[in-house]
Amino acid sequence: MQNNAPWSHEIAIVTGGSRGIGLAIARSLGRLGARLALCATTAESATRAASALEAEGISALGLPADVSDPNAVRRFVSAVQAKLGDISILVNNAGVGIFHPAHQIEEAEWDRVLGTNLKGAWLMSREVAPQMIRQKRGHIIHIASLAGKNTFAGGGVYCASKWGLRGLAGCMAEDFRGYGIRVSVVCPGTVHTEFSPHAGKDPSRMLQPSDVAHVVVMLVLQAPQSFISEVDLRPTQKP
């Protein structure tokens, strides 16, 4: 385990932490010395990601949870607290994307996207908030998207989830700032991962998961008397 003071006492949850953006964020926080709890949809993927980070000298615990299920979220946070202690950083990164014209979206698809991208962030935040309030400190970072600001054909349910996440983040920032808890939202443009190749676009001109991770590290390292409420992140060159 890396033990870089003062970060060895920081305990961070990263949802959707087994791959892509979430894994990059977890790795960057772990390199600062934070102890990590990775939340993924399956035990296999959570354990595999945690083992990969452990091999790099990063303290990581991988546990499965469906972030849209309040009971699963409660069990996950309880397990993390029992094994690691009170959470000081929460990165709500778990997300899914389904893209159809609004009139062709199935109700189950609507529920899946909103349940993961928006409800999941709310449930996880609600569960860790009492711990952070007791500590009078903490960071909650929501990974949204520029789709939370820009509409496009076929993006109805996805855009709705990300616009909603930005609204939730802004209100939470006001709810929690008196307790020393900083709430931020990151809105990346197109990010290249192996799971979302964005056919027809040049990967070298796209954002990389490490770019998003860099922003998260910047947010948590902000001096305590201030916080950055929202960051828009774009590639230098359009893909």
Overview of this protein structure:
With 239 residues, the chain is α/β, with parallel strands linked by helices. Helix content is 43%, strand content 16%. The protein has six helices and seven strands; from the N terminus they run E-H-E-H-E-H-E-H-E-H-E-H-E. The longest helix has 29 residues. It is globular. The N terminus is likely disordered.
Index terms:
about 240 residues, seven-stranded parallel β-sheet, 6 helices
As for the number of domains, it is: 1
Strand residue content: 15-25%
CATH architecture: 3-Layer(aba) Sandwich
Largest sheet: 7 strands, parallel
Number of strands: 7
Principal-axes geometry comes out as: globular
Share of helix among residues? 40-55%
Tally of separate helices:
6
Task: Provide the CATH superfamily.
Answer: NAD(P)-binding Rossmann-like Domain
Described by its quaternary structure, the protein is single chain
**CATH topology-level fold name:** Rossmann fold
Please list the strands of the largest sheet in the order they lie side by side.
3-2-1-4-5-6-7
Give the N-to-C terminal Cα separation.
38 Å
